[in-house]
Design a protein that fits this description.
heterodimer; A: 107 residues; 7-stranded mixed β-sheet; 4-stranded antiparallel β-sheet; B: 119 residues; mainly beta
Chain lengths: 107, 119
């Protein structure tokens, strides 16, 4: 199985800050890397697919980059609704695997 | 936008079979991969497996011996069966659509249903 490792596991930030979350794959996954946002009690929501493609309807303050084994999710100016848990996921090969999650909290 | 809705018992006894159905509205099952994912309380996401609209499947090896996922295109739904459950199978179970043209990303999800394994 391909292991996905996110860092940090938790992050405190303020409204208006720029934040970056990192995801590393245990082997190359080309750009088959997706990012999801999950708010408490809700289903995950797709933000970014294929490492850098913004899902329809997702604000442009979200962006993704990377290829191979190292990827990043950036939020350019945090809004109150962005405080949630973020997961990366590889869909390069089955079994599809997720990172352990990064919880973004208000400072 | 397609909508997905999970349904099934919220309580299952140990050693019995967990059965869930995902009903899809607002779109066809054709040309997509239909996934099941679970999330134990307070923990991360685990992919269980998928069924393609044609009926082909792929399962997580960690669950493969206990899992069956099937599709019924006439009813626009797909199903999950997990047998010989234990308390470790207690989780919120989600169904989600995988889109081949977008790196198989899961672009639509059901709201999730909590299944508790307990006697």
């Amino acid at each position: 199985d391909i292991q996905m490792t996110q860092s940090p596991s938790s992050l405190s930030a303020s409204v208006g800050d720029r934040v970056t979350v990192t995801c590393r794959a245990s082997q190359t996954i080309s750009n088959y890397l997706n990012w999801y946002q999950q708010r408490p009690g809700k289903a995950p929501k797709l933000l970014i697919y294929g490492a850098s493609n913004l899902q329809s309807g997702v604000p442009s303050r979200f962006s993704g980059s990377g290829s191979g084994t190292d990827f990043t999710l950036s939020i350019s100016s945090l809004q109150p609704e962005d405080f949630a848990t973020y997961y990366c996921q590889q869909t390069y090969s089955t079994p599809y695997t997720f990172g352990q999650g990064t919880k973004l909290e208000i400072k | 936008q397609v909508q997905l809705q999970e349904s099934g018992p919220g309580l299952v006894k140990p050693s019995e079979t967990l059965s869930l159905t995902c009903s899809v509205s607002g779109g066809s099952l054709t040309s997509y991969y239909w996934n099941w994912i679970r999330q134990p309380p307070g923990k991360g996401l685990e992919w269980i497996g998928y069924v393609y609209y044609s009926g082909s499947t792929s399962y997580n090896p960690s669950l493969k011996s206990r899992v069956t996922i099937s599709v019924d295109t006439s009813k626009n739904q797909f199903s999950l069966k997990l047998n010989s459950v234990t308390a470790a199978d207690t989780a919120v179970y989600y169904c989600a659509r995988g889109r081949p043209g977008s790196y198989y990303a899961f672009d639509d999800w059901g709201q999730g249903t909590l299944v508790t394994v307990s006697s």
